[in-house]
Amino acid sequence: MTNRSEASDAIFASLLVALVMLIIGAVSPAWAQEPLPSWNDTAAKTRIIDFVKATTAKGGEGYVAPEDRIAVFDNDGTLWVEQPFYIQLGFVLDRVKTLAPQHPEWKEKAPFKSVLAGDLKGVARSGEKGMVELGMATHAGMTTDQFSKIVTDWFATAKHPKTGKLYTEMTYAPMRELLDYLRANGFKTYIVSGGGVEFMRPITEKIYGIPPEQVVGSTIITEYALVGDVPVLRRLPKIDFVNDGPGKPVGINQFIGRKPIFVAGNSDGDYEMLRWVTAAKGPGFAMIIHHTDAEREYAYDRQSTFGKLDKALNEAERRNWLVVDMKADWKKIFGWE
Amino acid sequence: MTNRSEASDAIFASLLVALVMLIIGAVSPAWAQEPLPSWNDTAAKTRIIDFVKATTAKGGEGYVAPEDRIAVFDNDGTLWVEQPFYIQLGFVLDRVKTLAPQHPEWKEKAPFKSVLAGDLKGVARSGEKGMVELGMATHAGMTTDQFSKIVTDWFATAKHPKTGKLYTEMTYAPMRELLDYLRANGFKTYIVSGGGVEFMRPITEKIYGIPPEQVVGSTIITEYALVGDVPVLRRLPKIDFVNDGPGKPVGINQFIGRKPIFVAGNSDGDYEMLRWVTAAKGPGFAMIIHHTDAEREYAYDRQSTFGKLDKALNEAERRNWLVVDMKADWKKIFGWE
Predict the structure, then answer these.
(1) Does the N terminus or the C terminus of chain B have fewer Cβ atoms within 10 A?
(2) Whole-prediction pTM value?
(3) Is the pLDDT of residue A251 over 80?
(4) Does B318 touch chain A (CB under 8 A)?
């Protein structure tokens, strides 16, 4: 009898919920809102909505089962700002300054010397070797738990050099709406970024609604070790996997194990991922965020140090990739505008 | 008006569903069933249920938010049989025979020669080097899509040498019930196996209800390439990551990015994973499947070639890891019994 009565309770509870929803239905329920309110009513918005409608229309030609509705998003320049430099580079620069008192030798040693002098050109001159050195000095040598805390603490106060807003507020409102819209239509949303996976994971749930297990990124080697009798994972100063360019399809296959049907990027680092997703026989939607708004954000493409967009832009039309013109297609760029 | 009317439609539909459920409630609904029916009513079953109840009781001391209810399962010997040899080794042996006509040189070349002669001891004598050679010859050199098809086709007919059942029927019924039970309680279930990730992914959804993106395993290097103008991922004969022993916590951190609160394993290859999960400050439940039933399955532990269980068994009591005695704790082992 207990089972019967529990079942009945559950049913009456769900009836009650349905009735309450019926009564408050007058108050413009969330599902009745227009999707993508920060997008202008241009062709870009229409193409996105048409694709989502086609993939979710049961019995339709373009229908995709919910478990195959995988959507992948580049992060830097696609979901959040990447100028005047990658946010992760902002972390590196701040972190070198924080750690400098423990490393008096840095005052005389490139590339640390340039960082401490605020000489970004000097940092750039140190090239890839210098960047790796800075990356390892700031990202390795601690446990994964410690690094997660360092990153979380940094994001709590670190601000964008131009706007003075917290970096966590420098996400694109139209893209956050797009993530919500896709999820509301049964898509599983992933980040697939060249950035460090453990740099992004502590904040992606909060700023994008994307949980840690749906973040694919670059990694350094970690090692299981005992501290006393306590097992930890230690971050070693050695690059494991670079999730950029041809590495992006590799990373998607390794982490997700399915081919996405929706992809968004903004630079040539996304080119192979765009190609791979749209080469599939079934439905495949690709979009490129084109930074065209010098006033509200930044305008850059073919010549940019960060987020160079050249080859992918050249081939976009031919490959039927949607190019989103930030200036024309977005009503607002940031949530705080 | 359209929005209002659509909202009302949705509500009436859910009311209708609730009413229908109420009417058919008499027919013993799924949620009223006792959990874990293939488990005997021993302490093992009680400990599992107590843990799940504690983690899901809102306001209770042991409560865990749904997003942190991560459960990880070893595969070989924990979810499916690993005797008389790993199922993936069965695939290797069959595959060598299938490919042999294209490789006449294998007739005279170790370790292929031993495989073709059915000489398993000779295969074993070839050691790790021989195993890697066999693995690469059968797992690399094709695209990821091609490999997925090869594996799927193989599982459709490949049978266990002792029982004559399909390998896909050689999963443990009590463990499949445990997976279901955990998921019904808001847990996200993962496989964390030393086996090849692309060997498992084509079938884990079907046999365990675990989707490809929740399978963590060993990997070989894949490479983005163009075949004509079509992008593919090519599997190269080079090991990337071995997800075993200390590699398991590393793999969990890399793929999931959260510490699980529930872990099941059966061998010393799971030792570090068991340690890592139960070292966390919060709740952490660990269990070891002990193969004690020579009649219904196999009995083995400290001396076994496959699934050696020694160190983890020694420390289980001290670390409060549940040791599941298959003979005593499981009513049935396979679904077809």
Answers:
(1) N
(2) 0.90
(3) yes
(4) no
